[in-house]
Amino acid sequence: MRYIALIHNNPAAWQALSQAERDEHNRDADVFLERLTESGELLGGAVVLAHPSNAKTVRVRDGVPAITDGPFAEGKEVLAGYYLLECEDIERATEIVSGDPSARLFAVEVRPIMHITASDV
Amino acid sequence: MSGNGDVEDLLRRLAPQVLGVLVRRYHRFDVCEDAVQEALLAAALQWREQTLPENPRAWLITVASRRVTDELRSDRARRRREETATAEVPADERHAPAPGDENAPNEDDTLTLLFLCAHPVLSPASQVALTLRAVGGLSTAEIARAFLVPEPTVAQRISRGKQQIRTSGIPFSLPAEAERAERLRVVLQVLYLIFNEGYTASSGPELQRGELTAEAIRLTRELNRLLPADGEVAGLLALMLLIEARRSARSRPDGSLVPLAEQDRGRWNQEMIDEGLALVTDALSRTPLGPYQLQAAIAAIHAEAARAEDTDWRQILVLYELLERIASNPVVTLNRAVAVGMVRGPRPALDLLRTLEHDEHVAEHHRLHAIRAHLLEMAGDRAAAAHSFEEAARRTTSLPEQRYLESRAARLSRPPTAPRSRA
Q1: ipTM of model over 0.85
Q2: B195: chain A residues, CB-CB within 8 Å
Q3: Contacts of residue A113 in chain B, CB cutoff 8 Å?
Q4: Where are the alpha helices (DSSP H) in B27-170?
Q5: Spatial distance between the Cα atoms of B261 and B394, rounded to a whole number of angstroms
Q6: pTM
């Protein structure tokens, strides 16, 4: 099964960390991803998103695109990055994500990815 | 490599034989496996049907051996550089081949490799990738394409598997008699996993996954040839053939699923059905009963019914009861509920489902809700059936299944029209 791990963070909380704390977090994140690559459970690499102030949101209504500044969901917590996992089941996926340093600082949502295989119905 | 199919078949057949010779000669499975892959690649590029070497097997052994000795020599040089200059210089390690091993394929090698690649210390993902590469002769790129996984991920699973084999000191020999049965079960599990990955893919861009079912059947057929006395190997081969026979009838061109009861049985592959029927009949008559044989027997009953309404559900129910007795698990109980519904009616089947609602493994499973929905529909409770189909649609992670379940729910939410047959 495939899962996406969505890292939700709070940019203000990140800013409030000391440089040493941020360095430690980044080092831990590197080690975490390296281990995950070695186990063959990480699909591709992790994606880190730019600050939400760089986002544009597009809506097309009656064929007319309206483009607004900022992310779709307003709030303190924003989507900061994601990575894809392939592993046995959701229990294993949450076990993996429990080792993600982002889960210590912020919150990581794990969700199954729809697949196109199907058993007989 | 299209247009060179015969060469490809030959290479895949020779792959485990060549690897076996090398591992017995040089002992380093990890190094030998890489070398055989390189030799297969070189052959695939150079060989054409008209220009095959006189002895393809010997050609591959020679080319792969050269790679192994190169690798071991540079390995040794690397180590030597790292050690102090006082280290003694090892003699040139050119092992003389054991007499005759160039020409007589050792039948046990393929078997030994299957056991090695499906060793329980490896993760299922590594077992699958390594089996397809070392025994099936597929390249990392081919495996990656078939499983829709990035190539580096497959490469990582293979190298991790080989590293685990090396560090665990697993010998290149058949498992001891005492653990043989248990180990064979893992081999069969790996082959079934490969088959399912290919079979459950719906149409569209995933068609190439059909190659996986063909490969799983080829390897299981080989295993059945090597272990003809084992009824579960024959049972698994029969099961694969009987399921694979339905492939072209199970989905429409747009990828949507056709339930078993609505499939055009004229499109089932009769040749595969005949072979599957013969295999399972023979296995059941002469070997101890096992779960694969029973599942194959159930698939055989579906295959023998000319029309869905001719299906011998009583017989299927008996087989599910047997299966539950020797390999009890909630998924078998779910399937038995379908058979109970067909034989005794929806109410007793719904009662049976209720016993599973507290099982944490199935209570949240979409299949429990889908089966309940079918049974409620049979019982005439359209509103409750529609609700259960929606519940099932929300829980599945398969897009084709979700579309199917949503369409069933939508049909029931409309005012009743002429009744349709059901799965």
Answers
A1: no
A2: none
A3: 397
A4: 29-46, 56-82, 107-117, 124-130, 140-147, 151-167
A5: 24
A6: 0.86
